[in-house]
Amino acid sequence: MRVIVHGVGAIGGTVAAGLHRAGVEVVGIARGGMLAAMRERGLRLRAPGLDVTVPVPVVAHPSEIAWRADDAVLLCMKGQDTAAALEDLRAAGLADQPIFCAQNGVANERAALRIFPNVHGVTVMMPAVYLVPGEVAVFTEPKLGIFDIGRFPGGVDDDDRRMAAALEAGGVAAVLREDVMASKRGKLLLNLNNVLKAALGPDADTGDLGRAARAEAEAVYRAAGLSWDDPNRRDPARDALIRPVDDLPGVPRAGGSTVQSLLRGADRVETDYLNGEIALLGRLHGVPVPVNAALARIGARLAREGRKPGSTTLAALTEAVAAGG
Ligand SMILES: NC(=O)C1=CN([C@@H]2O[C@H](COP(=O)(O)OP(=O)(O)OC[C@H]3O[C@@H](n4cnc5c(N)ncnc54)[C@H](OP(=O)(O)O)[C@@H]3O)[C@@H](O)[C@H]2O)C=CC1
Ligand SMILES: CC(C)(CO)C(=O)C(=O)O
User: Fold this and answer.
1) pLDDT tens digits, residue range 3-61?
2) pLDDT at residue 250 is higher than 90
3) Given this model, what pLDDT does residue 216 score?
4) For residues 222 and 89, what is the distance between their CA atoms, to the nearest angstrom?
5) Half-sphere exposure (CA, 13 Å, Cβ side) for 4?
6) How many other β-carbons are positioned within 10 Å of the β-carbon of residue 229?
7) Which end of the chain is more exposed for a tag (fewer CB within 10 A), N or C?
């Protein structure tokens, strides 16, 4: 299996570097500063006890790849960039090769399945940071992360098994899941806080807002008849694979993925695919979702206005949510 990492940033960069140093064939699709830096210097990955720079082959667009039957695409861009990436893949001639959505949220798989027949979900547990172009870091040990993997909408097939084997070789623990979307819906409950951390700062207490956003989501899942894994359930065997570390020598810990988007000055964030997904499901199933709907609006505004993480207080944010965002 050759792995095409589409979207080389914090997650894609960590995975691509891990795979390449393990001898797994990998090609990155990158853009902007990351593309230029990788072409010039390679890709640097730092993790506890690890600092490597690897010459991961990289292209700017899927059309530059001579696609093979044994290719598998790992989508690693944020949800707001998925639709454009899928269009690019279609135009480049991708057919029934498997597409793995290594992304937060639960909307990417459905978007991919609309266009391609062979789609898989991946729950990404990997606290990674896009430091500067060409450099990423991950704050966990002994593994670089742990991914739950399964076919969308359900089941496990040989493509999942091949991807799991490649990831394991590359230092990422991989767990095959018959119902991977239950795992992704559990993870989404954690990611409802991403926008709160972006607004309040990465270390802020998200208070009653975090609890209210999660309660809405659980009510929505129940009304929609959707199962989910409890993301707070502790499993000592899993926990032993990804112990979080607070500090890497000389490497600042920026915070979660939405905080990082604001720090990099992105004009869009992923909130529509996190809190916005709960708002969508609530509207579809007749469940009130005022908190997540307001947070989705606030996320879009934070990015549009170029706010940095920590630009507001919990009291002000609570007031804004009560006013509808
Ligand atoms: N970072 C983390 O700790 C975690 C992230 N996740 C999830 O993983 C996913 C990826 O997040 P993360 O790695 O942090 O995001 P990043 O923004 O760090 O990386 C995504 C990269 O993909 C690039 N990109 C987007 N579209 C394309 C395209 N069409 N072609 C080429 N490159 C493209 C982006 O470019 P540009 O910068 O120009 O937009 C960016 O460099 C998200 O769904 C996130 O929620 C899950 C768990 C933890
Ligand atoms: C759970 C968390 C916050 C880990 O980094 C994440 O998934 C993200 O950054 O989006």
Assistant:
1) 999 999 999 999 999 999 999 999 999 999 999 999 999 999 999 999 999 999 999 99
2) no
3) 98
4) 35
5) 23
6) 19
7) N
Q: How far is CA 269 from the centre of its chain?
A: 12
DSSP 80: G
Nearest one of 217, 210, 201, 178 to 307, comparing CA atoms: 201
Return phi, psi of residue 132, to 5°: -150, 165
Domains of the chain: 2-178 (3.40.50.720), 184-322 (1.10.1040.10)
Write the CB contacts of 2 (distance below 8 Å, at least 6 apart in sequence). 25, 26, 27, 68, 70, 71, 72
Structure-token match 């990436």, residue found: 85
State the DSSP H helix or E strand holding residue 249, giving kind and residue range, or none if neither. Answer: none
The CA 256 to ligand 2 mean position distance, Å, reads 5
5, 63, 76, 109: which to mutate for ligand 1, most atoms within 8 A of CB?
76
Q: Side chain identity at 274, as an amino acid letter?
A: L
Distance CA 279, CA 272 (A): 9
> What is the bridge-based pairing of β-strands 58-59 and 26-29?
parallel
The bridge status of strand 140-142 relative to strand 242-244 is antiparallel
Distance 275 CA to ligand 2 centre (A): 14
- How far apart CA 270 and CA 277 sit, in angstroms, is 10
Give the ipTM.
Answer: 0.99
Tell me the pTM: 0.98
- Token pair, residue 20, equals 């390449």
The CB of 194 under 6 Å from ligand 2? The reply is yes
